[in-house]
Amino acid sequence: MKFLSAIILLTVxxxxxxxxxxxxxxxxxxxxxxxxPKEEANRKRHxxxxxxxxxxxNSENKDWQMGHNKFSDLSDDEKVSLLGxxxxxxxxxxxxxxxxxxxxxxxxxxxIDYRTNKCMQPVKDQGQCGSCWSFATIVPLEFNSCNKxxxxxxxxxxMLVDCDTTNHGCNGGMYDAAWQFLQGKGGAMKSSSxxxxxxxxxxxxxxxxxxxxxxxxxxxxxxxxTPYPNPTAIMTNLQSDGPLPAALMVLDSLYSYSTGVYSDAxxxxxxxxxxxxxxxxxxxxxxxxxxxxxxxxxxxxxxxSTGWGLSGYFMIKRGVNMCNIESxxxxxxxx
Length: 335
Known about the structure:
The strands form three sheets. Strands 1, 2, 6, 7, 8, 9 and 10 form a seven-stranded mixed sheet that branches. A two-stranded antiparallel ribbon has the order 3-4. By secondary structure, it is of the alpha+beta class. The chain has seven helices and eleven strands. The model has no long low-confidence stretch (mean pLDDT 91). It has two domains: 2-60; 76-334, Cathepsin B, Chain A. Residues 24-79 form the Cathepsin propeptide inhibitor domain.
């Protein structure tokens, strides 16, 4: 009997090893991975750990699902390099300086979705560079400039990475400081004149190639959405000011987001715990089913390429300040 049990266990172990190898080879084919023999073992280990996490989560969670993407074989240090929101202030210290504007008592639509708006530029990829703040800075400028002039414009994140010495290039920054920098500099250049090239390195101020003749948009004013965290205030500003940059705390689970309304009970409650800049581009509510209740959500644009999430976007639970996303919404207006 013991011998038979041992044979069964061995057979199962061999089958699992074969499946792991098949899954790993398919992943490498799907995402064009080619590793050196020295690197192969570590990459495979990261992938299989992610595989187990995805399988466990998807079997237990009905609200949102995980899936493999280009991050599945990265180390924790490599994933951290994608984060770069670094607020210069703590939100509670701003209360005395910010005027809490009453939320307008206007009729808000049941949903807003700017993803397919003619003024929304395609989702971009920040690469292995903590420049998320520059992408969050640029998106609303592109959108609002187009809204005002009727002409679509693509603006340069690389200009901010290279030139904005109030922020830290690939080592992080924040959109409010970037808007202030652009006010003093004279505006944001067009990406056609200053293409995005950042990789793992990038030091602000050392390679700046600013050209005032290539400016595509200028900042008139900007501010924080107040009071905070207030979902209705964010919805109101989305209607009046277009897409809104925000910051949130990225937990390991978000890297593998695939579909559904994201939430994670491990998100911190301290509103100052944020590490990544994104852009809120809409909101809505899911349709209730027999097993899953309706869920209010934000539609959020990321800068991790169209191959991540919902073609570069994700939905996150609305009204509960999930991962502090409702504490850091801001708006910008153009000249």
